[in-house]
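Quick one: structure tokens for this chain, please?
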Amino acid sequence: MTKDGRREIKYTLYYRVAKYIGPAFTTFLKLFNGVGPAPTIRILPGDNLIIDLVNELEDIKPWVYRVLNEYRDPNITNLHLHGAHIIGINPGDNVSKLVLPGNSNRYNYTFSYDHMPGTMWYHTHWHGATAHQTGQGAAGLLIMEDPQDYPIPNYLKKMTKTHEIEMVLTHLNLIKDPEAHGNNMTDAAEISGSRLTNWTISGTNMDITNSTTGETNMILVNMQYIPYVNMKAGKWYRWRILMASVQERLAMALVGKEGASCTVQLLAKDGIYLTDAPRIVSNIILSAGNRADVAVRCKGVGEVLVKNTGQDFGHTKYDFNTQPIIMRLNIVKRKGQKDRASLKKMDVPRPCYLVNLTSATAPELNPKPLNIGFNFKGSSPGLKPKSLPSINGWSWVDQQTPLQGGSPSTIKLGTVQEVVMKTASGHPYHQHVNPFQIMSMSGYQNDDTPDAFRNWYQIGDWQDVLQTVDSVPTATVRFAANTFPGPMVMHCHILFHEDRGMITTYNLTGKVTTWPGAKRDVDPSCIPYNIPAGPSGCKYYHENRNCRLAKGCNWEEKSMSCVFDCRRFNKMGFKCKNTKECHW
């Protein structure tokens, strides 16, 4: 317990080499705690999360000097909390912090009480080695659980408690591809100077076994090749899915055999509940870095295949089409009463940083949009111009050098910023610190845009990674520059591109505040940043659903008011002596 009454959650991650015995080859991988996927970290809103990262990799001597925006430093590492709404500098999510071999670092993350519960993840993020390390499986789920009194429907509470399935999808391709132009794991290892995890020579660091398959380019589910998942007929399950790929994306459909079939309903994307959840979908569509929470219910008895549909949801070279089946579901009979076939619409309270931004106008809406173009025409100040992966023609310099190329790079806190992605189909756009809301997508209603895509991606949805289809080349999104000053990193989530320069920052400045229009114009009951304890916090809440989110507050039916409950405050793990407004 911290001095200000927060829960303190501690984890230790040991970054080390582990032997991997796979379906087609045996090799060595660099993994957290020597396992893949990495341990799942579970927290609650308002928690203080402490992670000790211990780098047990060898100190390569002599170091081979590598220029910026090239694969380098294979054994230097660090940590990124992808999807977390926290500050992007120390003591928060600072991806410029390095952890050298034989060294350790303590990360101290403080989450605000208004943080929406959801599915996030963590992975390495040292520039030049991100793809090399994350692509091997150095990634794990970070789940912010729904608090006990969080007003989600009972059916979701039940399936989350008893029938939740975690799925980390890893794209493992260790075979050199001469047509990949350096965008592959073998080139990243070879160029960076990695010794052990360098798969160029078969028989030295990798043994081809073909024990289960001859396929060497595959999607693994929790590091397993086409696993079987047992599910009971008529029962709703909550799937938490992470696409931990560093390049590929998938469109998956559940195809039944022998009379079995399944219904899929989308609950959340990128750790943010949909405003129209649950949404019936035909495909589960995930680009590199995306997460999805889906409710799945199957009927009948038999096998259901989770198939890669092979639909062209973008440039062909980034559509994974070598593995038609991702996993198999074994649907078995269930004793007792079946769950309801339909799910009730959800109505969860929104934090003020996730309200609808459509109504934002000047001066709170910044007049100039950020125009973002990913290309391969990059150069960096002080460096010889090259054909580097770049943003607006400029490649990465450092976290203190903001976006170049004519767009405004300094954004005032408390304002709303619009971003126009000019190459949205070719590169998954990702930003740290603040998620964004989809405002428009050019060609969205075109006849050649797949219906599955239009159903999955809808105007108004919130995400932190977005990649469109070829027929939708441009997308416009907005985000509220809320609460956290400092650099806000943005990059292409094809991590080979990010390592070689397709990354930049926005600079958030000014007084710590949130967009005032959130409460004033959109949702007066939205949950503010850092809800205070005691009666001073309860006074903000006039509805049952919001009252229960405030520390120590309780809803009284008789008086129809939100009041401070000292006993409940103490039961939640806080100490009454920490607030003057609590007396025994």
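DSSP finds nine helices and 35 strands in the chain.
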